[in-house]
Amino acid sequence: MIYDILIRKRNGLENSREELEELIGGFVKDKVPDYQMAAWLMAVYFRHLSARERADLTEIMLHTGDIIDLSDINGTKIDKHSTGGVGDKVTLIVGPMVASEGVVFAKLSGRGLGHTGGTVDKLESIPGFRTDLSLDHFKEQANRIGIALAGQTGNIVPADKKIYALRDVTTTVDEVSLIASSIMSKKLAITTDGIVLDVKVGTGAFMKNIREAEELSKAMIDIGKRHGRSVSVVISDMNQPLGMTVGNALEVREAIETLSGHGPEDLEQLCICLAAKMLELAGVGSEEHCVNVARKTIETGSGLEKLIELVRAQGGDPKSVTPPTMNLPRAQFVREIFSEAEGYIESIDAEAVGLSSMILGAGRRSKDDKVDPAAGVEITKKIGNKVERGEVIAVLHTNLEDNIEPATRKLLAAYTFSDDMPEVPALIKSVL
Ligand code: URA
Fold it and tell me: What is the position in ligand 1's atom list of the atom closest to the CA of 183?
């Protein structure tokens, strides 16, 4: 009985596999009402799940929907996932990097919501680029050129969609086991050979400190192990946006610059680290060797060539991603933002920058909103940089003139300053 399942979790006891099957199966079929599921989620929030319960929950969730079988794609397939950041255009960079070295990158991605962006929106800012590939087309392309990036097809883990909606309104999103099973059920539903996870930590992330980020990482590695899947984790900083741009076409441009060897240092460093981990999981060689191989894909331009090949294959205009012209959408209004304070930048609230970009048209308030590919924020200064009053700290791009004022206010409030040089947060906190 659901009532007994709730009592056990409320009292801090474990739920058996059968109990979890009854609860999740019943909820997906609308036999368990929202109020009982909400009560269980809140009990989990305070009482947590054991490693066994977490693995069972993940497996039960994963089997509520389609399994995307990639076994008929030749070669080693490595997936990559980020727990969600601002300015995170890493997939557009590491995918082509590893694919240019023969590791298959066949990835299904999502759209952005609220302050975070989504890879599908970024790709769709490339004129003509199609993300609505059928599964057969997706696999055929991955076999042919080693890379395919598409929007989520089919019905992957419907249990997660339903549970997440309830977590969102019951303040139970940020619980380690619930996040780990949500992410891993979706990753395990696609049969790749290995998964590299970029777990974000900081003000702009679910995990606010390194202890929580490590706990989440270990939980996801453990779930992977129990399902026979290799998982590596890089924990990276999200106390400020990644790179210098937030917004779809702006981020594509920065991804191209990074693949050309002219990207921001933090973004390049993280991409080399993640691509190297992906190559290592694929058996390319030692950690040191893989770092060198990853770096070479930038130095020789082989990663950029692969991105251009990907764009051509998915109907995009190759000229739009070929430097130096990069024929990408541009906004009608481009406004410099001047600092109202002086001193060293001490922090830049990534979430606020993401929201400012959303106000300019780059993101969605709700699921069905349209995004403007040209809109977004370029930041010109980062933590540790010294600025004078009146100096440009960011540039806004938008087609919505009336939204410049509220976006500016949101953005300026994202910065704090100090008289002394602050400690610049390390980008890569830990590799597991
Ligand atoms: N991302 C997910 O997919 N699920 C969560 O619960 C949190 C982040």
Answer: 3
